[in-house]
Request: fold
Amino acid sequence: MTMHHYPASIRTLIRNFARLPGIGEKSAERLALHLLTAPESEARELARGIGELRQKIRLCTQCFSLSDADLCRLCSDPTRDATILCVVEAPADMVAVEKSGAFTGLYHILQGLLSPMDGIGPDDIRIAELMTRVAKNGAREVIIATGTSMEGEATAAYLAERLAGCGVCVTRIASGVPVGGDLKYVDQVTLKKAMDARHAI
Reply:
């Protein structure tokens, strides 16, 4: 796309929008032109929100999720079951579990997965903090909810081994055929996991 017909300030805004994930040049152009014609209050609110995002958002000191206070909303909620921890890779994974409504405990966000090929070892993610948290807070169950990629499985196995002597029940989320899934379209690894995790009905 040639943008030379736009003034420099608009070209700069389009380039900045195009750097965002999932935003191509056409979408970036539409966004920039929308802000140009939108009420000034809307543009100022967007700018203020971006500024506050960088200034106020930090990691929760307990679970390492995104927060605007020392403790995130979930860690400071007295109705959550603090004896059950769900370990996930990133804040987006925590949000996905929360949306399911199936979990009422607390989370621990690793902020990554073990990946020796990329030079990411146990000291590079929040494993030490998990071990300290389990020892201090008397957790009775740790649910490992990392993905089923090679790195996710390796991280789950490593955590299970590390937690084995801590007197805590260690579980792994089930994986298999998605609800509404057609078997002929399910990949072999997923189908094998579904067969291995079969249960009586």
